[in-house]
Every structure is written in C-alpha cells, then in structure tokens.
Design goal:
Elements (H helix, E strand, L loop, with lengths): L3 H14 L9 H15 L3 H10 L1 H11 L10 H11 L9 E6 L5 H12 L6 E7 L2 H9 L1 E3 L5 H11 L17 E4 L4 E4 L1 H4 L3 E4 L13 E6 L8 H13 L1 E9 L13 E4 L2 E4 L3
Parallel strand pairs: 1-2, 1-7, 2-6, 7-8
Antiparallel strand pairs: 3-5, 4-5, 8-10, 9-10
Helix pairs in contact: 1-3, 3-4, 5-8
The structure holds S-adenosylmethionine.
Length: 280
C-alpha cells in the first residue's frame, strides 16, 4: 500500500522530467493505478522513479499505463437517444457542426457519433476532432478495429440507438451493421468502415496543460468519463476551458456519473445529463 507521500513523490518525479502533471488527479484512483503499475512491472516505487527519470520511453509507457481507457460503442444508450431526438435536429439547419471528443480513448465514442450523424444526414457538414493524452489510444482509434467477443453489447446498443425509436415502438429501421462495420467472428474483430475511419482529425492533447488546439469553437464537446479522475479544482478549470470554447447554445456532454460543480455551473443549463451553454 502506498502512502500519500509516496504518491506525491511519484508525481513530483514525473514533473521534474516532463510537462505531465498529475497533482490534481483524484487521489484514490490514481494511487490504485500506481500500485497496479508496480505489481505489473514487478518493481518498487524507488526503482520506478529512478527508471522514469533516466528513460523517456519508459516514462511515456508509464503515462499510458496510468490512464484508464474503458469505452464502448454507444455507451449509455439513453444519452445517444437524447442526442438523436433532442439535440442534433436543432443543428440540422447549420452549415457546419464542430465537434470535439476530449479524452476519446480508443475511439468508440467518436464512431458512435459519426454513425448517428450519418443516420441523420448530417455527416458531411460535421467537422470532427478527437484528442487524448494517450497516443496508443489515438492510434487504436484511427485503426478502428475492435475485438468482437469483448464488445458484444455494442450490437445491443447499436440496435437501441440506431434501429429502434423509444418514442414509437412501431418505428424500427432496418440498418444493417455492415453499413458501418464489418464483423469477422473467426478473427474476433469489428472493423469500422473506411468512410468513418477517414473522417476524424486525431491529436495528442493534455487537458491539464493544453487549451483548445483547433482554432475553432465547438457546437458539441464530449468529455465523458475523464474528469471523474480529476479533483474539483482541475475539473472546474477544464470545464471553464470548454465553456470558453463552446458556441452559444453549444452542448457539453459529460459521463453519466459526472457533473459540473462550482461557479462555472452557472454558464450552463442542464437537461437530461447534457449541459447547454447559456446565452449571456
Ligand atoms: C475512461 S476513458 C473515456 C473514453 C470515452 N470518452 C468514453 O466515455 O467512453 C478516459 C480517457 O481520458 C484520457 N485522459 C486521462 N487524462 C487525460 C488528460 N489529462 N488529457 C487528455 N486525456 C486524458 C485517458 O487516456 C482515457 O483514454
């Protein structure tokens, strides 16, 4: 078991040799991640710190190991249903729609949005950007190849959001999976269609240090299941940055267990787990 002082020592050792700064990550889950890294690498904290300081590649590997990358296609299907029926129709008249997925992990959230946009005939007008601190995840997102068996509930989620209509049970659309991805059960893979893979601009971006790197404001910013790993101070700073980079009436979309606390909450109106930027 690591003490709080151990964690501080580890964080300071990273700060000494890089611009990564984990001091405002939420303590409990961060401590668990370091403990896992020690077990996986079979080393002591002092050995870990000494290797991090000598070996830049090892440091990058540890940064990747620290991040939690769980994600899923159409994760929390109710959210996607809200987007489909309550949010996206209001953007249909726009000439373009700017979307940023911050903390996109291996890209399933990005592909969910692209599929939804295509179903609503809004694909061409969307400009889609996606970022993460973990470059292995960005590579995986670009490849768009996932394990089939591990992700079986993808198909359930897809049916709920894309084929069914919760407001009218008779309205069922026959959308074949092959329109968007190819399933190869023998190879245990799901491969996203090329037109989806080619759409998004992926960049490395650290929410602790970096501001908006895209020279545009956004209609929708997704940052789901990311700020849950940050303390309140960092959460507020990141939300403030998002608020400054949303168009009026733009939406910030957080994870099911995340919410906006503090003064910055006044910038938004909350409906069904979505935060709409207020007009000032
Ligand atoms: C649990 S995943 C969420 C993926 C997706 N948004 C979803 O909800 O399904 C959290 C992601 O946040 C990324 N992350 C953690 N700290 C970050 C930071 N400081 N800047 C950018 N991304 C970060 C991790 O690398 C990870 O891919």
């Amino acid at each position: 078991m690591l003490s709080n002082d151990d964690v501080t020592k580890f964080i300071n050792s990273i700060k000494l040799v890089s611009r990564y700064n984990f001091e405002d990550y939420s303590e409990r889950s961060f401590k668990r991640r370091i403990e896992k890294i020690l077990v996986d690498n079979k080393i002591s904290l002092n050995e870990l710190i000494s290797r991090i300081q000598k070996d830049k590649d090892f440091l990058e590997k540890i940064i990747k190991d620290i991040t939690v990358n769980t994600t899923e296609l159409f994760r929390d299907s109710e959210l996607w249903i809200t987007l489909k029926y309550r949010v996206l129709p209001n953007l249909k008249k726009n000439k373009s729609i700017f979307i940023w997925h911050a903390g996109c992990s291996s890209g399933q959230e990005v592909y969910s949005m692209l599929i939804l946009l295509n179903e609503l005939d809004m694909f061409d007008k969307a400009k889609v950007f996606a970022t993460d601190i973990n470059t292995d995840m960005l590579e995986s997102a670009k490849r768009g190849v996932y394990r089939y068996r591990f992700n079986l509930n993808y198909l359930d989620n897809f049916d709920k959001v894309i084929k069914e209509n919760p407001y009218n049970y008779e309205d069922v659309k026959d959308v074949p999976y092959s329109k968007y991805f190819e399933i190869d059960k023998a190879k245990d893979s799901v491969t996203m269609a090329k037109f989806l893979r080619d759409k998004t601009i992926y960049r490395k971006h650290d929410l602790v240090n970096d501001k908006n790197i895209f020279y545009s404001k956004f209609d929708i910013i997704f940052c789901r299941n990311v700020i849950i790993y940050f303390n309140n101070k960092l959460q507020n700073r990141v939300i403030e940055m998002f608020s400054n980079n949303l168009y009026r009436d733009g939406h910030l979309i957080l994870g099911a267990h995340e919410s906006i606390l503090g003064a910055v909450a006044n910038n938004f109106e909350r409906t069904k787990g979505l935060y709409k930027k207020k007009a000032f």
